[in-house]
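Sequence dictates fold. Next comes a concrete instance:
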Amino acid sequence: MRTRTNLNFGEDTSSGIRVLSALYQAGNVNVFYEDREKGEEFCRLLTLEGYKADLLEAGKGDFKKSGFTVALGGEKACFAAKRLAKGRYAFFPDFVFPELFMPYNGVFAEFCFIDTSIFRPSSEKAALNCFACVAAIFTEALAVYYKDKGGIFKDKALEGLLLGTKKVLFGNEDREEYVRSCLRLVALTAERLKDRSVASFTVSETARRLGGGTENYLNAAYYFHRLLILFTKWNFRDMLIPAEKLVPEVVTDARPRYGEKDLLLTREELKNIFAKVGFRFGGAAKKEITKAFSEAVNADNPLFAEIYNRGIPEGIIGYG
């Protein structure tokens, strides 16, 4: 069984189809699409290579076709392929997010093909999408790493990945290698979190419940990092009413953490990093994000679950 999703880069869709042909030489290809025109063109190219292509609109129900399944587009198409594929599947995304590199029911995508004609250094949209993807996985992984603080071991592999993502977030990555560096770090970090028994990402799920897209991934990443900063700075034990509906199987940790920074960004660093990409976190969005967090939180990320169980998100809605 595949243990990870291969990450491939190429100049256009035809390059990705060549990657597909190395794995699956003939037969039916099911194509989940979001943009019909792009889906039809993709199927035309598949047909020229000898495949029988079936075009399927993402989100339009189940299907019973066997063969290789491809997702063409963003979150909607990629999650449809993950959940409905009858066999092997792959991604041709035009929007990147951490779950591209996570399995569904234990099955990883064969590959994720990054079209460098879309994800190019000169594209502000693509660069911002990559930044948001890195920021989201960084915050998710930081909570997993930080939960170990004061324990009997340190996850040095995860620590190394967090240091690498900080380099990207601080703007210290080469322009021409930016997209590749971002996505390789996201892939490796997602795989490491999977090894740590994290099956779903609270940050990403919160972003999707806000409507998805780059801006909401930035909103969620910023919000959760602020939660982590506040959680380590303030002693909330006697200040807040616990959440009404608690996440089960998460025990409040009595070990002191307050005042320790470790790999956390400072409040000023966080603001400055996000300001570089033109992002401003709006106070009016806090209630919406808090609600989305309450719907997304689960025991996969125990530190976020602990923060939620203590009632901290509701308690700081009015805080800057």
The mean pLDDT is 87.
